[in-house]
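Lecture notes, structural biology module. Today: joint structure prediction for complexes of four components.
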Amino acid sequence: MPRHLPALLDQIHTEAQALFGQGRVADYIPALGEVPPRQFGMAVALCNGETHAVGDAHTPFSLQSITKLFTFVLALKLVGDELWQRVGREPSGAAFNSIVQLETENGIPRNPFINAGALVITDILTTRYAHLDYALLGALRRLADDPELHWNARIAKSERDTAHRNMAMAYFMKSHGNFHNPPELVLDNYCRQCATEMSCSQLAQATMFLANKGRDQSLRGEPDEQFLSADDTRRVNALLLTCGAYDAAGDFAYRIGLPVKTGVGGGIVAIVPGVGTVAVWAPELDAKGNSVLGAFALERLVQLTGWGHNTL
Amino acid sequence: MPRHLPALLDQIHTEAQALFGQGRVADYIPALGEVPPRQFGMAVALCNGETHAVGDAHTPFSLQSITKLFTFVLALKLVGDELWQRVGREPSGAAFNSIVQLETENGIPRNPFINAGALVITDILTTRYAHLDYALLGALRRLADDPELHWNARIAKSERDTAHRNMAMAYFMKSHGNFHNPPELVLDNYCRQCATEMSCSQLAQATMFLANKGRDQSLRGEPDEQFLSADDTRRVNALLLTCGAYDAAGDFAYRIGLPVKTGVGGGIVAIVPGVGTVAVWAPELDAKGNSVLGAFALERLVQLTGWGHNTL
Amino acid sequence: MPRHLPALLDQIHTEAQALFGQGRVADYIPALGEVPPRQFGMAVALCNGETHAVGDAHTPFSLQSITKLFTFVLALKLVGDELWQRVGREPSGAAFNSIVQLETENGIPRNPFINAGALVITDILTTRYAHLDYALLGALRRLADDPELHWNARIAKSERDTAHRNMAMAYFMKSHGNFHNPPELVLDNYCRQCATEMSCSQLAQATMFLANKGRDQSLRGEPDEQFLSADDTRRVNALLLTCGAYDAAGDFAYRIGLPVKTGVGGGIVAIVPGVGTVAVWAPELDAKGNSVLGAFALERLVQLTGWGHNTL
Amino acid sequence: MPRHLPALLDQIHTEAQALFGQGRVADYIPALGEVPPRQFGMAVALCNGETHAVGDAHTPFSLQSITKLFTFVLALKLVGDELWQRVGREPSGAAFNSIVQLETENGIPRNPFINAGALVITDILTTRYAHLDYALLGALRRLADDPELHWNARIAKSERDTAHRNMAMAYFMKSHGNFHNPPELVLDNYCRQCATEMSCSQLAQATMFLANKGRDQSLRGEPDEQFLSADDTRRVNALLLTCGAYDAAGDFAYRIGLPVKTGVGGGIVAIVPGVGTVAVWAPELDAKGNSVLGAFALERLVQLTGWGHNTL
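The predicted structure, tokenised, for the full assembly:
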């Protein structure tokens, strides 16, 4: 454990602010575009129970694609390896919303973290749960230890109103037999899911089981403390490392070397197996849809702590 | 360190042999197709100096794409981050010899481990070395600690005679200004390089610097013991994890979770940072060009040692 | 005019029957798959008023993609060259239902005769007509001179129930701003349109304006006898020649050399400018979705009459 | 036959000059880029023996891709329909130098008029002729009735020096077994062929057999007056109509409606079957590589003569 983590976070906070203005807030969903750009928060949760935070680490933000991590884990717990009959686990080498590979690969998305793959995951969950939105919220509330956790209904609606490309993917997969529920219903669930809001400190908490061989420490002593098996936890982290940052996964691995999941809300969560988790949030995005300050902050943290060196 | 590594290797050796016949020896290069299929070797080199081996671990085999790891490291040492202006570091999401992305991405290969990317690396090295083949051989001899290390001239020739697709890629990149030497010359170097032969025990030795924060222990005490910087070592490993197994990188990460490099000669080398390296060889390949028994052996080793759990 | 057209048609009829069994009835729409395969009809309508028919030339069949010809002409009459802002006029070089080019060309379909292009045309007409299905039926009834002309409701429903891929295309174009009405509504219209039924003799009659510099002879003496301008007629024929036979347009041009439109119902209509029209129907299709006997019959007719030689 | 063809050509000449400056002279081959842009020539050769010309109709220019028409006809005469085993006859729906379809369609080019297809044709001819360059020159001299016809050695060399992309295609096809001679040798032939020079009046003359059911009138009374069979002539014209203008074939068919072949030297030749041929030249090109003034002149000629209306 680095001695002076709070001081390091302060240093990174200061350095990161110099990058304000280098990216652009996502505006493809109108309601998302209204978020004030110059915000930055960062939270670290350690396996030993310590937590540290700087900046806007307690401001809730829209998780967006970060929720794909949670829905994937839920689906993996529910259906196990059968899931791989409907979605691959290879990097896509293409934009997160590309439909081209669906045509050349018969409606099977490359991995669960591109849009098409996440839609299949939501389709699987929609089949299992009468009210997926509340089931998912329940799981997230438990993981984040916050009974008030909710989704932003206005952003969910804004997202649903402009979800044409995701609808296209859902129908395309349906034409290949790889979509079981009505696309309209799954998109309703998907857009609510994406609009879930957490703060950095909550997000770091909610993903701790991935740093901890699958154990959910918020449940210490309870019978289902093992939220995910150790083997599956390792596999989820592998998938986050190869596919967690859209079409910049290779660059993230190269610069940061940790399993991550990013979202167009400007959040990134990174897993340091055996050490802890890091959540960072800053709404300005680069051309590939990842947070500019967020990626910078993680890269600096890895340099300053050597955490990347332990894993790779 | 697992207590009984020799026993584990014996167990894996026995289990792996049950898979003989499930793959096919590469035959796109005629001379490669003559290798007897039912062979299996495995060697482990640990940071503490221990080495263990089973089966045909001392039989030399054709490294093929595994040499892309060594040429990439040499180029990174020589030209540093400038290298990234000529090659990307993202998984390709396509076959190792696909030319499609070169057209849509203006002659810049996705990463140094697909064929197009390795050709650019060899082009870079060809510019630097009057006799690249001997320069490379020198580096490999030093790393493998074997002054007799050589390439198989017959396989090199067989490879050169059928290198039409690689020639196509070289000329295509040249049309985009991303190839500086005559393609014919670079292909000569490339085919000799691919025909280099090592045994598993030599390969495990030669890659130890990647498990060891860049230090080459065969040089213990000599002034240039630091073969590669610790930062660059971490980055190379990250790239091996995301791009080291052709279009099965995601699947390898999921099942094995270690940086690897595979070759159509049937070899695979895996890095366990801080612990050691594992080289395995069995000529029968699966549909994506990776060794069937090799992948199985690494997956079992990770399960039995927990090495995968330490890194991810 | 060939002297013995009736005898030629009899000869072709006899020769064509030898090909029964070489193709397969379309079955992607369940209701279409029930059509008995061994049927063949052919009708010729000449500019001089003569008509000739053999075989099942008076049996109604499902027009399917042949209706794209009529909807395109209607849209061209309504909106003129503005239409080309929403659809191209180049051959696609890809399957009729491919979605790949929509992604690389920003949601603008290559031409009005591939599915995506025909959907845009139906979207344009949906905006103009409160009840497009009846407006289209009215136009077709007038051209075919049959007040009883109708669509097959069962086939329309079967088509609508399995229209997932067309829905995907509609939503994809909507995401690019190239679709103005709700996809569900346009697809309702599109599927009814495709299910329109005509016999060969009706189809030959209904397309006579294309052989006749745009004049609709069924309206001889009426004020709007000029159904389409002579210039636009020539242009429509050019488009039929380059894009009328899915991804076999080049092969059709090479073998037959006439503007054609084919449909998966097994119908083909060919235009001989200045001479007349030929409609042929036989439900068995080749791998590209065109009628085996229909293409053969047209090729023979061109060889025996020299009609192809007059135009090219 | 239009009464006042000379007057029409004068009118078109005048109108066309207003478009000077709207296009750009091809500069991808350095030597081609030196051609003065503001030139325009047009020649019409009629089946009745009349010829008419305006502007720079007697200035030789670089035929470039127009030679693909001649080599294709030579190959068709030599090997007949076997040729279609090595090249398709469908529009490509992609840029003339795209390599993507070669990968997805196993090294078989879409048609003989895109670069890859023309390279296969030149490969076929290279196999047949010890000195293809002189064999081709002989044929062109005979057709153009000019024993002095030659290629521009400087342009040929400039072209060969920058032929990397064509080399890539040749090697790619060789890797699929669809290239029999050394790419270097075929490219030598190909670049000399492209550098052949003719004037508009020669080009109109040299293609007259295509307007004349295959008969070469310059050979009137000689035994081999039938240069190409009538059937094959019709087929070549069909192919020119669907594939003769790169990826603007559909637009050319729509606007002009005649079989054409264009070249990046700024030339276009159009066939009016049964009537005659039109050659036009103006070096400024549009974005798709076709002559701006040339396309305009042909479109106007068709409007003013109605020639397009006779054929479609």
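Point to remember: The interface with chain B takes residues 98-100, 102-104, 164-165, 167-172, 174-175, 179, 183 of chain D (CB under 8 Å).
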